[in-house]
Each structure stands twice: as C-alpha cells, then as structure tokens.
Amino acid sequence: MSRLAIFVISLGICSLASAETIKATIKGTACDLCGSAIEKTFRAQREVKGVDVDLENKLVTIHTRQGETMDDSKIRRLLGNAGYSVVAVTKEK
C-alpha cells in the first residue's frame, strides 16, 4: 500500500474519532423561542459545529467540530444560565 493511501486512511479514521455528538435532556422548554435561545447560546461556542433542539422530546443535540469536545459542566452551565435544568448528558463519538 502506498504511503499516500495510508495517510488518507489514517486521516479519515482520526477525523471520524475526533468529533462528538452530545445529547442533553432538559426541563423547562416550552416554545420555539426557547429552542432559538438554546441554539443561539451553543452556536456562539467555538467548539460547536451545529445544534438541534427537539422541544417535544426535551432534547438538545450538539455536534462539535472535529478535534473539539465540550465538557458536561460547560453544557450544564450554559443551559442552566439560560434557565433550563439538565436531566442527563450523553456523548457519542
């Protein structure tokens, strides 16, 4: 196998492993304005690539940029400062 092929495969494996999907189950959301406020809060964070808010299921899904992570305490603090209680936080690579 050529060095270039090995490099490309290695790069692909590293980039897949370095981004996270974080799911936070919350209490306190009631309307579309809540969802917009949460999205705005997380999009302002440098490590966040994207965020989705599911008001019906009380779920905030945060996608980090490759090579970035966000610790649970920061997630809880940001949501708490916005007026929401965090029930659980789970992370997937």
Question: Can you characterise this structure?
Answer:
- The protein is α+β, with helices and mostly antiparallel strands.
- The protein has a single domain (19-92), classed as Alpha-Beta Plaits, CATH 3.30.70.100.
- The chain has helices spanning 3-18, 32-43, 72-81, and strands at 21-27, 48-54, 59-64, 85-92.
- Strands 2-3-1-4 form a four-stranded antiparallel β-sheet, covered by helices on one side.
Uncertain residue ranges: none
Adjacency order of strands in the biggest sheet: 2-3-1-4
Tell me what portion of residues adopts beta-strand conformation. Answer: 25-35%
How many individual β-strands? 4
Second-tier CATH architecture: 2-Layer Sandwich
Number of helices: 3
What is the CATH C-level name? Alpha Beta
Compile the SSE list and pairings.
Elements (H helix, E strand, L loop, with lengths): L2 H16 L2 E7 L4 H12 L4 E7 L4 E6 L7 H10 L3 E8 L1
From the structure above, extract its key features.
93 residues, alpha+beta, Alpha-Beta Plaits, four-stranded antiparallel β-sheet, 3 helices, 4 strands, 30% strand, elongated
